[in-house]
Description:
Blueprint: E1 3-16, E2 27-37, H1 40-45, H2 54-67, E3 69-70, H3 73-87, E4 93-100, E5 108-114
Parallel strand pairs: 1-3
Antiparallel strand pairs: 1-2, 2-4, 4-5
Helix pairs in contact: 2-3
Amino acid sequence: MDDVMYIKDLRVQTIIGLYDWERKVRQEVSIDIDIFFDNKAASAKDSVNDTIDYKKITKAVISHVEKSSYKLQESLAESIAVLIKRDHPNNSIRIRVSKPGALRNAKDVGIIIER
């Protein structure tokens, strides 16, 4: 089984949604990222060069999401997956994107994709 580098509940403001008002106002999305990899080399060498640089990924995702303007969370999740897979093509990833407070009586609503 692979090890997992994860980023949980990354909060970013972006334009997202179908309704006219959603196209004019930035909303917060919450993003979870799981990247599956073999941690043996990194733990043996104790070197960032042999692991997943989560700071680099976080900066890239924040920049991408802040500049984006998707109607669907599904599209945003897929674009994040494509962004991460560019630098980590051999790693499996799981992306969760949600809009906290988007539904009354629900904490959040979102999508989880695996690539």
